[in-house]
Amino acid sequence: MYAILDIETTGGKFNEEGITEIAIYKFDGHRVVDQFISLVNPEKKIQAFVVKLTGINNEMLRNAPKFFEAAKRIVEITKDCILVAHNTSFDYRILQTEFERLGFDFRRNTLCTVELSQQLILDQPSYSLGKLTRSLGIPMTERHRASGDALATVQLFKLLLEKDTEKTIIQESIKYFDRRLEKEKLKNLIDSIPNILGVFYIHNAKGKVIYIGKGKSIKTEINKLFLKITKRAVKIQERANTVSFDRAGNELFTRLKYYIELEKLTPKFNFKKKFKITLDNFNNDNFIIVDKGREVEENAIILIEDNIVFGYGYTNLALQEKDLSVLKSVLTVIENKEVAKHLIKNYLNKNSVKK
Hints:
This protein is an alpha+beta fold and 355 residues long. It has three domains: 2-173, Nucleotidyltransferase, domain 5 (2-Layer Sandwich); 179-265, GIY-YIG endonuclease (3-Layer(aba) Sandwich), CATH 3.40.1440.10; 287-349, no CATH class. It has 13 helices and twelve strands. A hairpin with a 4-residue loop joins strand 2 and strand 3. The longest helix is centred in the middle third of the chain and has 18 residues, at 146-163. The radius of gyration is 29 Å and the shape is elongated. InterPro entries: DnaQ, GIY-YIG_endonuc_sf, Ribonucl_H, RNaseH-like_sf, RNaseH_sf. Pfam families: RNase_T (PF00929). This is DNA polymerase III subunit epsilon. Residues 1-166 form the Exonuclease domain.
């Protein structure tokens, strides 16, 4: 069963809108079997541009039921249904906000006819409801009124069901309120990551790095991130498409790689770390730090020249320790030398290593 709906609102600030009209058509995949259409008194003023767009004004809503009076009927007609709308994220958010004000947790699985149309009806100049239905020859009455828009969405959804000949696209496009598909995707991402010390990168569907993390066990850190329910964590989870990682070999390289990449990539969901940079010099102007590499017989190398961090990398020092130019050729030059110096000095002080 599907509950195909459209909602008109007062307009206003995000999550402060009120519903002025709602239309829900219960659809069994072939025909409408139930419906609910009603004006709603939002108990707040409608914005002028919305009045002009919809024709609904405050005077029309004076004797209309308030949302709490319509809530029970909305729950009943949508029970065990998948909510369908043209831009479902908007209508679903508005409904959930209204129910939250009543202390009721309203949760339904959803489908969006915009997203489905983009997959099943290709190369349209616009996927707005008005222009799309016009180009497809779907009749529409009372544009920007809940009943007219919802009925047009019913006809559009019928067409989408017919075009989904493999019967997979619509099924795979359902957004479950319990996030079962997202959880399965995140579990697969976690399973693909080894239990190692290093840095990990979360990429969105376009391959862009949206978050960088680090840890002694990057698998554990990713798992913690995917279990969090903060707004930032949920946004990362929703956008996560792939995860890549760098094995570091040691704690110092983990920190260096992490902060260097933060500076370079500026991921959307990382907080920018501000350092109180120390201007103190190392005790020696020229030296090499040798630490544990990623593999047996590999060394992690940091080169300091003239009290400035030149670069870092991995190599077998035994083969190159007599030729500095060869060593430099395998190192990655560090651009943000002040941050690198700060991190290295702190690490050396913490671990009581003579500089």
